[in-house]
């Protein structure tokens, strides 16, 4: 069984001034706690929630006596999450400041600090006692209510001061059963494409994420230069143009569509998905041509990590098992001859040093991920015995060995299944 969680955002109508003031005060105190804790935790190098709570809980209780005691608890959780994120960026050399900035605050609530007050209102514990607020429900909310999801004990409240509204993040959870996999579908994620191996055939879905990130990077730079010359550095006009770029939306779009196609292909066959176990830091051979460290990190996050996370999340929803395999050397060794493959200068096509056949780098990675899983190496998947390629390199053919079917983004990105995309004969080719 796996726990699947989804956040649903609901808003209250504008609240009476007096009532809203209670929440403004609450947020102020909560923010103070988080700021204080974050400073302390960074200074002392404490990133564990348990440790932070052990060290600071008593002090906080003394300082904020009229606040319900569990705010000290959730503030510690909030602060330690911020500190962990900050310390990670710091380790990667990506954080310039000494301390993380606490800009946006949402108040973290646990089961002692809120409870549902019927289907369209919640009760929140404040320094003025329990306060009930109604919220506007919407179709998405009812869908979760009606489809067997239940409310988790965590919730977050954000204040919209301009409209005197509360924005409430509710979390719905559901337990989903995983099936026993009948086979495996391996996935190799790259900065510009995702290659999958299904029943002996490799498909390369073009994502062009690196190109997208780079394209936006240069566009943003141009806009910045142009507007900074004309207006104030903090000009609203610039921000408006920047917002119109919608980089995040486009990246998310690609990410979720890729994940859906892959998970559905696995689900239809009742297969498990095999993914590379990723390191926190981009491996040297990944996107090393990008010099700018921050930019490289962004591309890595968006393509490798972002796509994997999406696959993992969609897989949970469908109950598709996911297996993580150590990616070491997966693209360097021939899956048939177990011999090194020689890649020409920067080429993604290489020649096997023993058999002399040609391979596409990403296809090699997929085959080797599959074998590692089947041989029970670095995974908990059932071992299926020896390599199915032994003695019969049939799946790879003789001429186009290890060459994937390349599918352009505008083809697969229309929410189609892999089959539907492939059945469109004239529109995809195998040229690389
Ligand atoms: Zn070979």
Automatic annotation (TrEMBL):
Keywords from the named record: DNA-binding
Q: Which domain of life is it from?
A: Archaea
Q: Name one GO molecular function term.
A: DNA binding
Pfam families annotated for this entry? Answer: Cas12f1-like_TNB (PF07282)
Q: Does the keyword DNA-binding belong to this entry? A: yes
Q: Where is the Cas12f1-like TNB domain?
A: 304-369
The record's annotation in NCBIfam families points to: IS200/IS605 family accessory protein TnpB-like domain (TIGR01766)
Please state what the protein is called: Transposase
Q: Which organism is it from?
A: Ignisphaera cupida
């Amino acid at each position: 069984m796996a726990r699947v969680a989804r956040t649903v955002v609901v808003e209250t109508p504008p609240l009476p001034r007096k009532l809203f003031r209670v929440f403004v005060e609450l947020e102020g105190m909560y923010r103070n706690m988080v700021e204080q804790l974050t400073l302390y935790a960074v200074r002392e190098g404490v990133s564990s929630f348990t440790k932070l709570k052990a060290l600071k809980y008593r002090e906080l209780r003394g300082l904020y006596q009229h606040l319900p005691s569990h705010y000290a608890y959730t503030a510690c959780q909030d602060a330690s999450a911020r500190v962990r994120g900050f310390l990670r960026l710091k380790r990667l050399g990506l954080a310039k400041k000494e301390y993380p900035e606490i800009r946006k605050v949402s108040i973290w609530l646990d089961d002692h600090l809120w409870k549902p007050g019927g289907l369209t209102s919640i009760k929140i514990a404040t320094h003025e006692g329990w306060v009930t607020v109604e919220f506007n429900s919407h179709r998405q909310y009812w869908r979760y209510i009606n489809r067997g999801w239940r409310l988790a004990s965590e919730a977050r409240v954000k204040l919209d001061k301009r409209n005197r509204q509360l924005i409430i993040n509710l979390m719905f959870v559901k337990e989903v059963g995983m099936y026993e996999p009948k086979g495996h579908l391996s996935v190799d994620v790259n900065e510009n494409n995702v290659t999958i191996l299904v029943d002996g055939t490799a498909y390369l879905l073009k994502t062009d994420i690196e190109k997208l990130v780079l394209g936006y990077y240069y566009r943003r730079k141009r806009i910045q230069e142009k507007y900074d010359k004309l207006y104030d550095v903090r000009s609203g006009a610039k921000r408006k143009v920047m917002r119109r770029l919608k980089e995040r939306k486009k990246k998310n779009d690609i990410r979720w569509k890729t994940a859906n196609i892959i998970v559905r292909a696995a689900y239809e066959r009742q297969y498990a998905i095999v993914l590379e176990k990723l390191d926190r830091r981009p491996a040297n051979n990944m996107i090393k041509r990008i010099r700018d460290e921050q930019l490289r990190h962004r591309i890595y996050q968006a393509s490798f990590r972002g796509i994997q996370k999406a696959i993992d999340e969609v897989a949970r929803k469908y109950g598709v098992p996911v297996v993580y395999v150590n990616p070491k050397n997966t693209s360097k060794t021939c899956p048939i001859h177990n011999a090194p493959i020689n890649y020409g200068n920067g080429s993604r096509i290489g020649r096997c040093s023993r058999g002399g056949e040609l391979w596409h780098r990403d296809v090699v990675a997929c085959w080797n991920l599959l074998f590692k899983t089947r041989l029970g190496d670095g995974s908990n998947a059932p071992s299926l015995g020896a390599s199915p390629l032994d003695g019969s390199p049939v799946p790879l053919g003789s001429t186009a060995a290890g060459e994937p079917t390349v599918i352009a983004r505008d083809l697969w990105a229309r929410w189609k299944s892999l089959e539907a995309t492939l059945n469109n004969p004239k529109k995809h080719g195998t040229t690389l």
